[in-house]
Structures are given as C-alpha cells and as structure tokens.
Design brief:
- The protein has one domain (about 1-95).
- It has 3 helices and no strands.
- The chain has helices spanning about 1-10, 15-30, 45-95.
Length: about 100
C-alpha cells in the first residue's frame, strides 16, 4: 500500500486527478438548467464544452506523460544494467580464454 501511495506522490497524480472530475462535471452540470439569478458563461454550451474538453485532454496528457516518465526511466535503468552485465560477461569470458 505504501509503495502505491509513494508512486502517486512522485507522479503528482493526487494533485492532478481532481481536475479530471472538475472538467467532466463542468460538461454535465452546464447541460442542466440553472436556477434564477445564476450567472451563465458567455458563449453558452459550446464554450463550456470546448473549455472542459481542452482541460480534460490537458489533464489526461499530463497524467500520461508523468507515467511515461517513470516507466521510461525504469526501462532505461534496467536496460543499462543489462548492457553493463553483458559487457562484463564478455570481458570476463575473453580473459579466461587467453
């Protein structure tokens, strides 16, 4: 459980995830009729829809890039370790044959 929370903190998902709900709810709530005295955004449904979709896509791309950074660095470290290991094996094999 602790590792999952630590990964979430390092990715910043706890900071970004609420925005997914914010933008998704903006689309849903703006469709419903508002009460008397409520302020409406100029441009109407299309403006709020465009802003919410842009915000949703931006937030999703931030999450994907954060996960890709962590996964990419993990793959890089594992591959570089394997390369060093293989080079050391080949170097040791040459010395024993000489």
């Amino acid at each position: 459980m602790r590792e999952g929370q630590q990964l979430q903190r390092s990715l910043g998902l706890a900071d970004v995830a609420p925005f997914l709900f914010l933008f998704a709810s903006a689309i849903r709530l703006y469709v419903e009729p508002s009460g008397p005295g409520a302020l409406r955004i100029p441009g109407g449904r299309y403006t709020i829809g465009a802003a919410a979709v842009i915000g949703l896509l931006t937030t999703l791309s931030a999450i994907v890039l954060a996960v890709a950074k962590v996964v990419g660095m993990t793959v890089f470290m594992v591959v570089s370790g394997v390369v060093v290991y293989v080079i050391a094996l080949r170097s040791g094999a040459r010395r024993t044959h000489e």
